[in-house]
Amino acid sequence: MFSRCALAHKPSDSHLAVAVRDAIVDVQWDIALRDLDFAIGVDADQDGAITWDELRARHADIAAYALARLAVSADGDACPLDVLEHLVDEHTDGGYAVLRLRGTCAAPPAALKLGYQLFFDLDGQHKGLARIDHAGNTRTAIFAADHREQVVQLSAPSAWTEFRDYVRHGVWHIWIGFDHILFLLSLLLPAVLVRNPQAWVAASSFRASGIDVLRVVTAFTVAHSITLTLAAVDAVSLPARLVEAAIAASVVFAALNNVWPVVAVRRWAMAFAFGLIHGFGFASVLADLGLHEASRVSALLAFNLGVEFGQLAIVAVFLPLAWWLRGRWLYRRLVLVAGSVAVVALGAVWFVERAFDVRFVA
User: Is 114 helix (H, G, I), strand (E, B) or coil?
Assistant: First the structure.
């Protein structure tokens, strides 16, 4: 039995399935083999394939590494975790090591506190996606480098609480999704300018710039809402490798268009076309959080609203500042041109990593 390293380098994440029963906390933790290999070196012969023997030889090291980065407590008292079993599984983006853990709390908890520290020292974009089940109720949580602890109330959530949680996840995902943000900002940067045959010049109408921004954001929203919905209801499914590489390519194209304009006027069309791909990226996060049939529609709506709220917050900060700076050399040369060149370089690195399964070390 063996499992190969991940064939796609989507943004790093791990998956926690937590089940609370009385004073027992059972955890299944899926961690990408590719990330483990980068952190502690699991592929002993460096041939690009992690065999079961190679993985088994490092079970103790994997357990020690993981357990040092996950803490569970119930109502303030620690629930020490022990490893019950090591397994391996395949996700859409490749092989994952699976740790089955169990913690025993002093008493059945009313609130569970999770402290998560995995890989943040190696990858600031890493996320931990958690689903917590208790007495037939499900809560979700997302861990990020600046959001490493979550306190989950185990009482049955109201429909409003569940809706609010998914809205928050949507907002949080767009804010920590740097590829999505850079794509959107690359499209918005020229909105306060007008292209003449030689160069970008400052726009004279705030209303016209506002309409341009509205068109771009609306097109992006409509497009990713379509594919997010289709993917969430399992109507359409694309390989993670293709989706994540295409998202990186969209960042490159949008930023490059600011330096050598191909689409200078109807950028909303570009936003719509690439927004269809970004929707599949949003859907992968929503799927990883887990959707129950009973709440699928409301969770989908709430997550999508959260993404829109997150986008609008970005636009609300960007547009006034860009309008104020639009006539300055700083904006036209440094922000638009030099900034876009930097985004092209970063997007190209993401594309190579995701399309060809390589990883650049800073």
Answer: strand
